Amino acid sequence: MSRPLYQVKAEFFKTLGHPARIRVLELLSEREHSAAEMLADIGIEAANLSQHLAVLRRAGLVTTRKEGSNAHYSLTSPHVAELLAVARLILTGVISGQMELLEDLRTPAGQAQPPRRRG
């Protein structure tokens, strides 16, 4: 019996639930990288990065290409980069809404708010 799609989606999002994995995917959205190239940017130990890359490989989000003793990583689909871009848009909207609420809270009671520009 197959699992419901919502459970599969939840597992997919759990895979994305670590900052190091998100950063790896961001870097790979730009171009192929070796693990050594990503280390300095991600700021974790090599063994830790290797574990995160393995999780992303098992999830089918990244693939490897061997060149001598080096493994080069890339995204399996451009949709992964699109997902990260959409997440950025969603977060921008959420944070903008929070900023508007903060402005409302800072305005003394009874004082009129200037009209907000919507764009």
What would you say this structure looks like, in words?
There is one protein chain. The chain is mainly α and 119 residues long. The protein has a domain at 5-76: Orthogonal Bundle (Arc Repressor Mutant, subunit A), CATH 1.10.10.10. It is 61% helix and 12% strand. It is built from five helices and three strands, in the order H-H-E-H-H-E-E-H. It has helices spanning 5-15, 19-30, 35-42, 46-58, 78-106; strands at 33-34, 62-67, 70-75. A three-stranded antiparallel sheet has the order 1-3-2. The protein is elongated, with a radius of gyration of 20 Å. The N and C termini lie far apart (48 Å). The mean pLDDT is 91. It holds the Pfam family HTH_20.
Q: How does the major sheet shape up?
A: 3 strands, antiparallel
Helix content: 55-70%
Number of strand segments: 3
Mean pLDDT: 91
Query: Would you identify the CATH H-level superfamily of the domain at 5-76?
Result: Winged helix-like DNA-binding domain superfamily/Winged helix DNA-binding domain
Distance between the termini: 48 Å
> Which architecture name of the domain at 5-76 does CATH use?
Orthogonal Bundle
The shape, in one word, is elongated
List low-confidence stretches. Answer: none
Which CATH C-level class of the domain at 5-76 is it?
A: Mainly Alpha
User: How is the largest sheet built, in terms of strand order?
Assistant: 1-3-2
Q: Briefly note the CATH topology name of the domain at 5-76.
A: Arc Repressor Mutant, subunit A
Spell out the helices and strands N to C. HHEHHEEH
